[in-house]
Design goal:
By secondary structure, this protein is an alpha/beta fold. It has 13 helices and 13 strands. Strands 1, 2, 3, 4, 5, 11 and 12 form a seven-stranded mixed sheet that branches. It has a four-stranded mixed sheet with strand order 7-8-6-9. A two-stranded parallel sheet has the order 10-13. The longest helix has 19 residues. The chain is globular, with a radius of gyration of 19 Å. The chain starts with a helix and ends with a helix. The N terminus is likely disordered.
Length: 345
């Protein structure tokens, strides 16, 4: 995770219990109704802390955040649909698309959302990207010598028991690993590769953020990640570097993994949630995305400064491709079943 708080994160159930206790027994509670509850994927904790304080100062509304892996928070919303507790869902693709397809998100029209590119927002208005991010990998530069550069390097026996990636289907970044390998090696090639990688893989992980401290400490040497979270952690405490594995021709590629936000259907504090969405898509707040090494989703905001430059430098020479998230969602269950079979889970 990107700081001590994130490194000490516990499972979703524990975090939810904390949120429940903090607001008198209901995740969306509060005696005066001046609250809004966000179920969110991890990665933005420090940024949230500052933005939510600013939001409270402007509106008097307290934001309660429940944090876990991207699949976990979406599943929680689904489980609670008969007794909705969350007001906003923030998670990665394809989990935001799946939540929308299940009727778990309601249309909203935040001010400024029209500045988000059409490909990064739902045409029916149920969700939109708030912060742009990208799939990457991290390694421990002191112990992983020479440093890994390619997908083939990760199969080297020197990494036996020293690689871990978050689980596809449970974590957005983990699902992204499967998609990236399908892009590079084809569907069957991706499965064959992941089967071979099991010789070096530590085992499942529902949260990508939990892997970064392991790499920094040398418990493992390589893990998947996302660029925003990783650059923020490097800036905070260091211990690892980012890389984008190259294919057999030496080409490096990746794709965007935005943080998407959507209004939860039947949200207990829908009006407060809509105000928070307006706040998150405002030019002022979008301009602060770079504070956490993210990029603004709105095209009318141009990031600048050392962090924006570091983000751009990390992506230099890396080919960016665009998944068809509707197609990904349509075949997700079949792909995950094939993955589990290939790796023996």
């Amino acid at each position: 995770m990107k700081n001590t708080l994130r490194a000490m994160s516990v499972a979703l159930a524990g975090l939810l219990a904390f949120a429940l206790a903090a607001c008198g027994g209901t995740a969306g509670g509060g005696q005066d109704g001046k609250t809004v509850t966000v179920y969110t994927v991890d990665g933005l904790e420090d940024w949230y802390a500052k933005r939510f304080e600013e939001f409270k100062a402007q509106t008097g509304i307290t934001v309660q955040a429940v944090t876990a892996g991207s699949g976990e928070v979406a599943s929680r919303v689904e489980k609670e649909k008969s007794n909705t507790k969350a007001d906003l869902l923030v998670t990665l693709p394809p989990f935001i698309q799946r939540a929308a397809s299940q009727g778990l998100l309601a249309p909203s029209a935040p001010s400024g959302v029209d500045k988000v590119p059409a490909g990064a927002r739902d045409p029916r208005g149920r969700y939109a990207a708030v912060i742009t991010n990208y799939l990457d990998f991290v390694y421990n530069p002191k112990q992983a010598t020479p440093p890994p550069k390619s997908w083939d390097d990760l199969l080297d026996p020197r990494f036996k028991g020293k690689i871990q990636y978050s689980t596809p289907g449970e974590a957005g970044d983990g699902t992204a690993v499967l998609l990236q390998l399908q892009h590079v090696l084809g569907d069957q090639g991706a499965l064959d590769y992941l089967k071979r990688l099991e010789a070096n893989n530590v085992g499942p992980s529902s949260s990508t953020g939990k892997l970064q401290p392991k790499v920094a400490k040398g418990e493992i040497l390589v893990a998947n990640g996302d660029l925003q979270m990783n650059l923020a952690e490097i800036d905070s405490s260091g211990g690892f570097d980012v890389f984008f594995p190259a294919d057999a021709t030496g080409k490096r590629s990746t794709f965007a993994l935005p943080y998407y936000a959507g209004l939860v259907a039947n949200a207990p504090h829908a009006d407060n949630a809509k105000k928070l969405l307006d706040f998150l898509f405002s030019p002022e707040v979008q301009g602060k995305a770079v504070d956490t090494y993210g990029m603004p989703a709105c095209t009318d905001v141009t990031p600048s400064g050392p962090r924006a430059e570091k983000f751009a430098a990390a992506l230099k020479g890396v080919e960016i491709w665009q998944p068809d998230w509707d197609a990904v969602l349509g075949r997700l269950d079949a792909d995950l079943a094939a993955y589990k079979k290939a790796v023996g889970r």
